[in-house]
Amino acid sequence: MPEGPALSTPGARCGIDSVEIARIERLLRETPVEDLAKLFSAEELRESGDASGRAASLAARFAAKEACLKLFPRETALNLITAADFSVARDAYGAPRIQCSAAAEAVLGRHRIGAIAVSLTHDRASASAVALAEPAQMPVPLAGKLAYHLLPLRRRVVLDNLRRVYGATVSEDEIRRIAQAHYAHLWRLLPEFIVFPWLTPAQRMARARVENLEAIVAAHARGKGVIIVTGHFGNWEVSTAAGIASFPQARGKFYFVRRPFKPAWLDALIIRRFRQAGFGVLPKSGSLDAILERLAAGDIVVFPFDQHAGPRDGVRVEFFGHSAGTFRSVALIAQASGAPVLPAASWRESSGHHVLRFEAPLELVEREDLGEEIRVNTRLCNAALERMILRHPEQWWWVHRRWKDWPAKKRRRA
Question: Are 15 and 111 spatial neighbours (Cβ–Cβ below 8 Å)?
Fold first, then answer.
């Protein structure tokens, strides 16, 4: 297969590939249908048809997949993405467009790529494709710029965290724009927090919507309870109120696992508002038996999973490519209860509306070594958080020191 160039300068990233049609003809003759489905999507196989042009059509699509891989040579070399993570679909006008798997979306997010434009062509002997990455640029409201400069709450922490995630893939200017957009998000939280209790139920519902509700409905129907893995995304209070209203059969069955806030009056206020919204509250420390009881009763337990965990409660696993102390409780409780684990995130759209989205349950693994099982499944939870953060990075809690070091173990005296 001829090697095509891949430009990687900021704002210009292009991949080119060419495939011999005869190679795809051999692939179609020699490969079982179930193996073809691992490389090409159902839509790609359907659109290619069964006529004589099928091999040329699939060859062009295969060239597009390879061209997309050349946009991200490091991730391709590390096998973080493969050709199967990209597929070619048609828009309403028949033009080709690239669809990405969850793994590919995460890679695009790390590089701040908004979309991949693709062009396909073929003759009798070969098919070619050009893939052009379209950079995303974070829009920054004026409030974000002012707050960033005039009210720099933990600005150094925010920038350090963003550099951990994006420093190797995007420009310092874009990192600064994400930081400023994050301050704009924090600025908007304050009036929302004040106004929300005074809204009628109808007004609250009008401000939010729920996506993929069927995922949690199906998981809840298994009868083992549900574990929701989430983080400090968007305005969780607004979006979860809409979520409970959209899932009335589970009202009174949602329990939020949380640490107490300081001062005590603020903690009491937040607990009261949780309960008014239909949430029960469980303490993060010392509540294992209570959590298992709730799951056995078919309830839904929500875990904020994006905070630092120390050696007593955590295990060190990768989070955005860096070792981070992460709570092992979700993996332990899922193993003990058999409850499905669903990621969920919320965000605010530019219109001011809030969205709560449930994802498909994680495919947790089993290992003979329980410690390794916990480590692998905890990493799966972190990977789910990464994907959700990258979709709307300005609305995650970057002010938190997520990558703290653990204290060195003291040596015992002989």
Answer: no
pLDDT per position as a tens digit, 151-160: 888 999 999 9
Considering the domain architecture, whether residues 184 and 264 belong to the same structural domain is answered as no
pLDDT tens digits, one per residue of 254-276:
888 877 766 777 667 767 777 77
Do 385 and 303 have their domain in common? yes
pLDDT tens digits, one per residue of 88-112: 999 888 899 999 999 999 999 999 9
Total structural domains within the chain: 3
Q: Phi/psi at 148 (nearest 5 deg)?
A: -60, -40
The predicted pLDDT at position 410 comes to 57
Q: Could you give the maximum distance between any two Cα atoms of the chain, in Å?
A: 79
Q: Compute CA 39 distance to the chain's CA centroid, rounded to the nearest angstrom.
A: 23
For residue 410, the SS3 value is: coil
Same domain, 102 and 168: no
Sign of CA dihedral 289, 294, 297, 302: negative
Q: H-type helices in 261-369, by residue range? A: 264-276, 288-296, 329-337
33/131 same-domain check: yes
pTM of the model: 0.89
Backbone φ and ψ for 311, nearest 5 degrees, come out as: -60, -30
Task: Name 357's bridge partners.
Answer: 211, 345
For the chain, what's the residue count? Answer: 414
The contacts found for 348-355 with CB under 8 angstroms, 24 or more apart, are: 348/185, 348/188, 348/234, 348/235, 348/395, 350/139, 352/207, 353/207, 353/208, 353/209, 354/207, 354/208, 354/209, 354/234, 354/235, 354/238, 354/239, 354/242, 355/208, 355/209, 355/210, 355/211, 355/234, 355/239
Cα–Cα distances (Å) from 200 to 204, 206, 241, 242, in that order, read: 6, 10, 12, 12
pLDDT of residue 143: 94
Contact 29, 20 (CB under 8 A): no
